[in-house]
Amino acid sequence: MVEIADAVEAACQRVLAGLDPGSEPADKDAADFRRRLDAHLPELVRLFHSLYRTRADWADQLTALVQHAAGSWADRPAELKALDAVREENSGWFLSNEMLGGVCYVDRYAGNLDGVRARIPYFNELGLTYLHLMPLFLAPEPHSDGGYAVSSYREVNPGLGTMEQLQALAAELRANGISLVVDFIFNHTSDEHEWARKASAGDPAYSDYYWLYPDRTMPDAFEEQVREIFPDDHPGSFVRMPDGRWVWATFHTFQWDLNYSNPEVFRAMAGEMLFLANQGVDILRMDAVAFIWKQLGTPCENLPEAHLLLRAFNAVCRIAAPSLLFKSEAIVHPDEVAQYIDPAECQLSYNPLQMALIWEAMATRDISLLAQALERRHNIPESTSWVNYVRSHDDIGWTFADEDAAELGINGFDHRRFLNSFYVNRFPGSFARGVPFQDNPRTGDCRISGTTASLCGLEDGTGHAVERILLAHSVAFSTGGIPLLYLGDEVGQVNDYDFALEDGHGSDSRWVHRPHFPAARYARRHDASTPEGAVFAGLRNMIAVRSRTPELAGTRLLDFATKNPGVLGYQRPGDGTRILALANFSDLAQAVAAMTLSGFAVDAVDILAGTPVSLAQGLVLEPRQFVWLRVTPLS
Ligand code: GLC
Ligand code: GLC
After folding, report:
1. DSSP strand pairing (558-559 vs 567-573)
2. pLDDT in tens, 172-191
3. Is 489 considered catalytic here?
């Protein structure tokens, strides 16, 4: 221990000595930087020491990194420093009940960055405070995995605009109260990134940026335990390079995993991160966090070092871009998802379990698994938040824990098979129009693609799709966390069955649920007699009500047993009052007994309808009906 403490102390001294020697801070900016450096450098050094102490260059890389951070702070625009100061005072800003997220592809939704700018009035109409623009950096087309194969983190894809336009957009969004979210695709680069090109050409320094092997010995050894992520694209995790070597590619053949056991890779990527931060990005979506550390003899997912790396990136931000937040994208076992959520790691996280179980409850008309998840897996540390969504640009994977399901007498494997067949419309009575994604007959694994409206049966013609769309969103909007809308879903956009005609998209069914801007549907959004209008009006009401309901801030949830397997219940505690949410997932009217509600005063208010409700006789919910009730607990 003493040895580590000494090493950390020595490294801190060395880093500090390497900084600008004019030691006394010249102005407030420099003093702020020193203050944050004093607060966070020891932790960064500790993390570097644990990750990299066996590498001879670890302290040099760290020194270079901190120097870079100092330079990056010096270059950080004044308005971002002002924002840093505001958010330092109000560090819980993202927990507000007024937060509402939207996500879209720049090209598909708006043509280019100027097009996005032109949609700001609409974003205001909707009430957005958070906008995730899908990857917009340079990526070789058409095989870019929707921009997730980045060849330069410092250039905007020229088809979308320029870095100057991105900065201007960020500023304009900020002026409109909207935070900009972009991806930090740090697990891998495109095989056309400069580093990858140099590695391909045999440069030893850059070969050490990736996991490159001369033959199959190491790939075979790793693959014994590593899961296949995109088996349609290539089996295993390695792909063969033209010169016969093998390179690690978890996702597509052209996405090469970075080697974070090399401290130079960390330093280089931290530099790219700070560059993005200084363009005016508020939140980074940390892509594929589960995969960033590899260790022979393990599944190479969710390893402890992955957390140390995230903490180290986070410490770099606290020093040089203090208001930047991280959102974790870990679509894995719920125990593992929770591990990434920490103020010192990722302050935000997608909530893939809730997402998947909303669909599960919709298919089964039984809320048991969803209720169990809310009860035991929803509450997360103070000062962190879920990002709750009904669907994303990715597939729906059934990531519930088999052990949770087993407690309810559900066999995980069989249940996933049922859900897959239900959502691809092979189960009798299914209303859904999903399509399979990465169907792997060898392992039985399969996931689902489809837009919200198509999965809810809008094309099915048997009715009730609008009710299902609203029911699904009512959960994501009220359990606690930032609701995130896939833009276009608020007007009921359906699948794009022509997706395969677009260059490079044919073999990836996720494009079925990434349609182009549904202009005709948006045009009907104010006509309540259309499905578009009904969905839009219902969501707008939820958004408006949420934003004036303080009980819905933050994430804290109390469970509520409705004693009815068709009706989901949960409570959001406020100051004296609570919001009791009830949602009927069944196709029949369902009762919640007076006795079950007897812990509350009889007089409640239905806040979505704006009407008083008496709990004296219990409640009856129509099929697929949900209510948010303001109740007063009797203590
Ligand atoms: C993430 C993205 C997904 C992409 C993958 C590889 O999971 O959400 O779209 O294919 O990372 O970058
Ligand atoms: C994610 C997940 C995987 C998902 C994919 C994107 O990181 O781990 O399950 O399907 O990448 O599609």
Report:
1. antiparallel
2. 999 999 999 999 999 999 99
3. no
Give catalytic status of residue 329 as yes or no: yes
The DSSP-derived string for 316-364 is HHHHHSTT-EEEE---S-HHHHHHTBSTTSBSEEE-HHHHHHHHHHHHH
Task: Give the bridge partners for 390, in sequence order.
Answer: none
Q: Tokens 């400069």 correspond to what residue?
A: 194
User: How many angstroms is it from 511 CA to the middle of ligand 1?
Assistant: 13
Rounded to 10 deg, the angle between the 58-75 and 2-18 helix axes is 40
Q: What is the predicted pLDDT for the residue at 397?
A: 97
Q: Is the pTM above the cut of 0.90?
A: yes
pLDDT (tens digit, 9 = 90+) per residue, 238-274? Answer: 999 999 999 999 999 999 999 999 999 999 999 999 9
Closest among 553, 94, 73 to 322, alpha carbons compared: 73
Given a contact cutoff of 8 angstroms between Cβ atoms, the answer to whether 469 and 492 are in contact is yes
Q: Whose CA is nearest to atom 10 of ligand 1?
A: 145
Q: Is 365 left (phi over 0), alpha (psi -120 to 50) or beta?
A: left
Question: 623 near 584, Cβ under 8 Å?
Answer: yes
Q: How far apart are CA 380 and CA 18, in angstroms?
A: 39
CA dihedral sign of residues 36, 325, 557, 614: positive
Q: 612 and 629 in contact (C-beta within 8 Å)?
A: no
Angle at the Cα of 407 from the Cα atoms of 402 and 412, rounded to 5 degrees: 25
Domains (range + CATH), the chain = 188-257 (3.90.400.10), 555-631 (2.60.40.1180)
| Residue 391 CA: distances (Å) to CA of 148, 251, 456 | 18, 20, 12
Q: Whose CA is nearest to atom 10 of ligand 2?
A: 395
CA distance 43 to 236: 36
Q: List, as own/partner pairs, every contact residues 70-73 make where C-beta atoms lie below 8 angstroms and the sequence separation is at least 24, other chains included.
A: 70/19, 70/20, 70/33, 70/320, 72/271, 72/274, 72/275, 72/277, 72/278, 72/320, 72/321, 73/29, 73/33, 73/319, 73/320, 73/321
Nearest to 377 by CA among 480, 490, 238, 256: 480
Q: What is the DSSP letter of 419?
A: H
Residue 553 has pLDDT above 80, yes or no: yes
Question: Cβ(74)–Cβ(274) under 8 Å?
Answer: no
Helices and strands in the chain, H and E counts? 22, 25
Q: Catalytic residue among 264, 287, 445, 467, which?
A: 287
Pick from 340, 352, 351: which is nearest to 291 by CA? 340
Cα 11 to ligand 1 centre (Å) = 36
The bound ligand whose nearest atom lies closest to the alpha carbon of 291 is: 2
For residue 255, report the distance from its CA to the centre of ligand 2, in Å. 14
